Amino acid sequence: MKQIAQNYKTGQLSVLDVPVPVCKPGGVLVRTEFSLISAGTEMMKVQESKLSLVGKARARPDQVKKVLESVAQQGPVATLRKVTGKLDSYTPLGYSTSGVVVEVGDGADGFEVGQRVACGGNQYAFHAEYNWVPKNLCVPMPEGVASADAAYATVGAIAMQGFRQSEAKLGETACVIGLGLVGLLLVQILRAAGVQVFGIDPDASRCALAQRLGAVAASAPDGAPLSDLKGHVKAHTDGMGLDYIFLTAGGKSNGPVETAAELARDRAMVVDIGKCKLDLPWNAYYEKELEVRFSRSYGPGRYDPNYEERGIDYPIGYIRWTERRNMQSFLELIRDRRIDVGALTTQTVAFEDASAVYEKLNSGELKGVGTLFQYRDDAPIERRLTTPNLRSVTAAGDVVKIGVIGAGNYATSMLLPHLAKRSDVQLVEVATATALSAANARKKFGFDRVSTDYEGLLADGEIDAVLIATRHGSHASMVCDALRAGKAVFVEKPLAVDATQLQSIRDIIAETGNDRLMVGFNRRFAPMLVALKEAWGSPAGPSVVQYRVNAGPLAAGSWYADARDQGSRFIGEGCHFVDTISWWLGSDPVAVSAASAKNDPDNMVVTLAYPNGSIATVAYLTDGDPRYPKEAMEVFGEGKVAKMDNFQRIELWQGGRRRLKKSTMQLDKGQKDEMAAFVEAVRSGGAMPISVASLMATTEATFGAMASATDGSTRAVGKSTPAKKTAEEAKAVIGN
């Protein structure tokens, strides 16, 4: 299919050939008929992409903060690779579309093939020939609503939510400052509700259109026209001023909030919908005791993964107007001729001409309010695309042919670059959930094929090994599928997120005899740690190991926080540190206990017991300063002390003498050597770098730690499913 995308580094816009998304459970696959350009939101992204690196940093200070934190924890080289990869990637555009349902996923009740729908969401309703959209962001079109008009539904929901935030009532008065797409829709919504509306915008044609759509008067934001408007307001309200002021303008001027105070009556309300400067003039707002409210996008449910991704609706008795109900309400206003979106459509153009349209909008050559893309109705559904081989490899017998499932930020910055540099690896196919992720991976690493269907990848007999780098909750099922298909498997940690998943992997290994499995426990391959262990020598007696992890707080909305589907943070990441300790000690843990802080169940200290009497603790800390270095490890035993500071400095103390080694810029956590070890095992047919028994024990230990933190028990770790020893036996082993 075709999809428009933008390279954020260069600003270049392209119409790409990408695979059609798979129809996942909980949503529908929609063939797009029309999509709407939201000039304000989308052109802001286009213009931002054309800025220099410094300009981008100034535009996104929140991202600069993340970069600085990453430098402190990951080092400058890894951070640079990650940032460069993100910048030099295709990003999607679009969030308001209409079309026809062509496939219905499990659980998407109320939809059927052939149904006409309106779709929303900047992660789903792209400018693309096909989109997979979750059910709560998809609304059936009422009879009599044209597909071109229905493409306005998402932007209409933004205006609708702003109106609802004001709680405006019949007979009241309002002014909309900023008569762009959202502002002109809001004018009509207010008129449909019986509210008298005024408008302000620097574009005279938009002011005239607002009046044609029902505004009492509209003018430019300064000079004589504004004075005339103020006179209209004064006459219309008997000098009291307006009840509501809606800010739908953008830009860096503080004029809109100052004008709002002038037009407002005593104790009026100002509702911010757009993205304009909000330096409130204190005296003006204080003297009138003005109330300021914000309107969050399409309505309740926005940014809530339970609502948007899982399809869990809010009870109507508690939340009357969700984002989906706002979309429905807006379409009903179109049906009843209360809103005229046709008056806003300046041009409808073929989707194939999308790049040129954006350039004309950006240059100012193309004027108007609403621009629609129209799509062909015979776009094929292709989920696997073959491309010319972009990389040269050696003779076929010396090459490991790899298929990759998932190409997110970690895979593309920390794993795939190492594989792409190897002459003995052929990157055959990448399968991703979203089409642009596949396109980005193809562009950067030269895959022969791209796909959105990983089952087709597994069925390909040409592929020797599979790398799985998806979200945590999907790892176990994909591992089972890949082992059943006879592939060697590398899966990013964790191996599983619960005991049932782990048992399913055991069962598949027993059923198929295929135990060619490796988990991405990269720290045991880190050069600094390897050097420190070699200097220590083979373990000769019990040791005490302390591993401290400054994991830090999660960003708002991070999928890592989704413990229900993705497992806890400690299960997802703590396995790294359990594996590293086990590698150092040369054996797997036999018992585990843990305690967590009251503020966060993942803010915890874990104690592990080992067969030779060694004891280890992992302090996994989520409440520290994120700029503090992330990891440190200390080992005490046999008259020696070993210390590792964030893979940049190692020390060995023995016989009163210290041996010290430092890294420079590079912070190497072992991914390159980890990939090399996996490729060699596959190529040679030799043993996998980590035994299956150890992978299982490490994963069990994380489950035991979470259970112990909940109930205070000590859990045994063994070769069978979960905690098999009695509490007394486990306590005897761990020493408490």
What is the CATH fold-level name of the largest domain?
Answer: Dihydrodipicolinate Reductase, domain 2
Strand numbers in spatial order across the main sheet: 31-30-29-28-24-27-26-25-32
Radius of gyration: 29 Å
Q: What distance lies between the first and last C-alpha atoms, to the nearest angstrom?
A: 61 Å
Q: What is the class of the largest domain in the CATH system?
A: Alpha Beta
- At CATH level 2, the architecture of the largest domain is 2-Layer Sandwich
How many extended strands?
32
Key attributes of the depicted protein:
736 residues; alpha/beta; Quinone Oxidoreductase, Chain A, domain 1; Rossmann fold; nine-stranded mixed beta sheet; seven-stranded mixed beta sheet; 32 strands; elongated
Description:
The chain is of the alpha/beta class. The protein folds into four domains: 2-152 and 341-374, Medium-chain alcohol dehydrogenases, catalytic domain (Quinone Oxidoreductase, Chain A, domain 1, Alpha-Beta Complex), CATH 3.90.180.10; 168-294, 3-Layer(aba) Sandwich (Rossmann fold), CATH 3.40.50; 384-517, 3-Layer(aba) Sandwich (Rossmann fold), CATH 3.40.50.720; 523-734, Dihydrodipicolinate Reductase, domain 2 (2-Layer Sandwich). A nine-stranded mixed sheet has the order 31-30-29-28-24-27-26-25-32. Strand 18 (400-405), helix 15 and strand 19 form a beta-alpha-beta unit. The chain is built from 25 helices and 32 strands. The protein is elongated, with a radius of gyration of 29 Å.
Task: Compose a concise summary of this entry.
The chain contains 25 helices and 32 strands.
